[in-house]
Amino acid sequence: MKTPASSIEPIDALGERVRKLQASGQQVVFTNGCFDILHSGHIEVLRRSRELGDVLIVAINDDSSVRRLKGPGRPVFDQEERAEVLAALEMVDFVCVFRDDTPLETILSIRPDVLAKGADWADKGIVGSEEVAGWGGRIVTIPMVDGKSTTDVVARIIDREAGGGAGSTER
């Protein structure tokens, strides 16, 4: 049985492990994000990503890069907790944490066969897509679940707290 701690790997060690998996014929899928408050939209992207190959690697932004990208109130959960939650999911094989604002260096180190990203990134440009395509890999966009984003979840929580609506702790 998989344990969460056994699935969290440093990027350099993960690169070596991936090369061994690929040498044995396994297809490695890579996706990334902040994964701050895990919700059903994340689960769908992870489930669909896992279906694209034999091994799913999820790279998460470290706490400082989440703050730079999302603002001073984020992340809600620190990188250790986010990594542990993701590693506990059945469809996730490995989790790693990266420091940069983009996962490009991590992608170059891991060299996945498939780069999967939510379709909301198609217009913004999927980081690493040119590189993955350059070594013969595939880039796949996963349809998003309407109305499911961490930013929306945080906004709903703040709105409910401010207005004393459903979910408020006020009595």
Structural features, described:
- The protein is α/β, with parallel strands linked by helices.
- It has one domain (4-143): HUPs (Rossmann fold), CATH 3.40.50.620.
- The protein is 42% helix and 16% strand.
- The chain is built from eight helices and five strands, in the order ααβαβααβαβαβα.
- It has helices at residues 4-7, 11-23, 40-50, 63-70, 79-87, 104-110, 129-134, 150-163; strands spanning 28-33, 55-61, 94-98, 114-118, 138-142.
- The chain has a five-stranded parallel β-sheet with strand order 3-2-1-4-5.
- The longest helix has 14 residues, at 150-163.
- The radius of gyration is 17 Å and the shape is globular.
- The model is unreliable at 167-171 (pLDDT under 50).
Rg, please? Answer: 17 Å
Mean pLDDT comes to 87
Number of strands: 5
Strand order of the largest sheet: 3-2-1-4-5
CATH H-level homologous superfamily name: HUPs
Number of helices: 8
Bulk shape:
globular
- The span between the termini is 44 Å
Percentage of residues in DSSP E strands: 15-25%
- State the helicity in percent bands: 40-55%
Q: Report the order of strands and helices.
A: HHEHEHHEHEHEH
Low-pLDDT ranges: 167-171
- Assigned CATH class: Alpha Beta
CATH architecture tag: 3-Layer(aba) Sandwich
Entry keywords:
171 residues; 8 helices; five-stranded parallel β-sheet; globular; disordered C terminus; single chain; Rossmann fold
